[in-house]
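PROTEIN DESIGN WORKSHEET
SECTION A - STRUCTURE
LENGTH: 437
TOKENS:
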């Protein structure tokens, strides 16, 4: 593993970060956390843009690379392949001037101490410019490359959503907007919009939500008025709807299973801060994120590090009025926010995750009071994790019934409600509300 180095610049560090994701199969967030602090502050934004954009379009860029090289790169030279990916990204997607994209990519190879690669990179990038028209024709004939998704992922979207898969893939390939959730315990949404206006931050309300705001342009959270004082949090509108569907009232015991990083836990507490809220996550490190969020917002929850499905190890026998299961899933509805999913997920993950989801549903159901509500959500667009999961659950549990929602800004399915990526510019998300008879 190459070490981060501030003298290497944005492109070189971006190539090293890409190598961590593509070759080592580490998450982009993990790789960024390791490398970005060592990148010169003025280069960090560009380095991040290179990483997110290249992963967003990786299947397309990789296809182009394969048209330009005669034989695959050796394992020890995969960092040079990532530099070539970044060079093509700049030429095809970022509108970087040709001479700058080529010369900076060649220069980056020297910073990797691989001077020999400069000639190869220069030749490949110039060949791309010469052959661009022919390569684009080949792209059109290759669906995974043309739509920028690995073949298994594209096939799954096509199978589940034959009328909408192109809209889904288009949404996945776009940069996501930045959305906020206003802390109603501190300030009203209308008052906060005025605060943003006074800071020349253009924004509008997200009609589908109670407390959501859409920024015209993403910005540093520390430039948001009152962020450190807990007035506002960053959260997509689709995720905000989960708490609304829970329909929490004062005095209820609430369980948030799989709670990290705590956005929904905090939203639950903002809705009703006096409620007894237990937040569980299997990762003690990720529980720290919940603690940091509740501290900033001035809220309190009981935090438990445990496998929520293994109730014998953490449950004290007191039933809950409300249970939220934001289940681990493929993330196939939020690829625009996590483009590394295209490279880190595999087709067999669907069945593995569906088994975990089933265990959470079955094992947490007995913890719900009679007439209590369980809300099951995922950030997936796959039916096996969503409506098929809930259909099977209802067949196994005769004491469960689905609550049909009178108003929810998502499309009603035979079981539950689905938002697809890009619906009203929000993330892809699934919701099912279940009542214990």
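SECTION B - SEQUENCE
RESIDUE ASSIGNMENT:
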């Amino acid at each position: 593993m190459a070490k981060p180095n501030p003298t290497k610049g944005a492109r070189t560090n971006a190539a090293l970060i890409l190598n961590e994701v593509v070759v080592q199969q580490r998450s982009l967030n993990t790789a960024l956390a390791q490398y970005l602090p060592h990148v010169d502050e003025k280069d960090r934004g560009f380095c991040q843009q290179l990483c997110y954009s290249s992963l967003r379009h990786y299947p397309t860029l990789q296809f182009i690379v394969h048209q330009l090289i005669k034989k695959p790169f050796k394992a020890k030279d995969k960092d040079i392949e990532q530099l070539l990916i970044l060079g093509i990204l700049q030429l095809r997607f970022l509108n970087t001037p040709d001479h700058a994209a080529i010369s900076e990519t060649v220069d980056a190879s020297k910073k990797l101490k691989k001077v020999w690669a400069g000639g190869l990179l220069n030749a490949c990038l110039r060949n791309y410019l010469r052959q661009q028209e022919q390569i684009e024709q080949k792209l059109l004939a290759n669906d995974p490359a043309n739509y920028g998704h690995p073949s298994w992922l594209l096939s799954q979207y096509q199978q589940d959503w034959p009328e909408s898969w192109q809209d889904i893939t288009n949404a996945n390939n776009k940069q996501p907007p930045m959305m906020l959730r206003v802390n109603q315990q501190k300030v009203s949404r209308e008052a906060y919009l005025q605060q943003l206006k006074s800071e020349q931050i253009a924004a509008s309300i997200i009609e589908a939500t109670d407390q959501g705001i859409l920024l015209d342009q993403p910005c540093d959270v520390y430039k948001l008025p009152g962020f450190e004082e807990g007035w506002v949090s960053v959260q997509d509108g689709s995720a905000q709807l989960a708490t609304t569907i829970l329909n929490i009232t004062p005095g209820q015991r609430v369980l948030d299973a799989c709670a990290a990083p705590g956005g929904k836990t905090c939203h639950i507490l903002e809705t009703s801060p006096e409620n007894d809220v237990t937040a569980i996550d299997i990762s003690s490190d990720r529980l720290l994120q919940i603690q940091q969020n509740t501290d900033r917002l001035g809220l309190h929850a009981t935090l438990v590090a445990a496998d929520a499905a293994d109730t014998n190890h953490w449950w004290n026998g007191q039933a809950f009025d409300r249970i939220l299961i934001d289940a681990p899933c493929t993330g196939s509805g939020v690829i625009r926010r996590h483009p590394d999913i295209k490279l880190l997920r595999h087709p067999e993950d669907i069945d593995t995750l569906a088994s975990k989801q089933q265990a959470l549903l079955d094992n947490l159901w007995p913890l719900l009071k009679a007439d209590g509500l369980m809300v099951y959500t995922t950030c997936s667009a796959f039916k096996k994790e969503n409506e098929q999961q809930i259909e099977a659950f209802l067949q196994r549990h005769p004491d469960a019934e689905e609550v049909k929602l009178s108003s929810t800004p998502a499309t009603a399915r035979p079981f539950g409600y689905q938002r697809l990526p890009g619906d009203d510019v929000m993330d892809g998300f699934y919701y099912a509300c279940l009542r214990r008879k």
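SECTION C - NOTES
The CA atoms of residues 56 and 339 lie 5 Å apart.
The longest strand covers residues 368-378.
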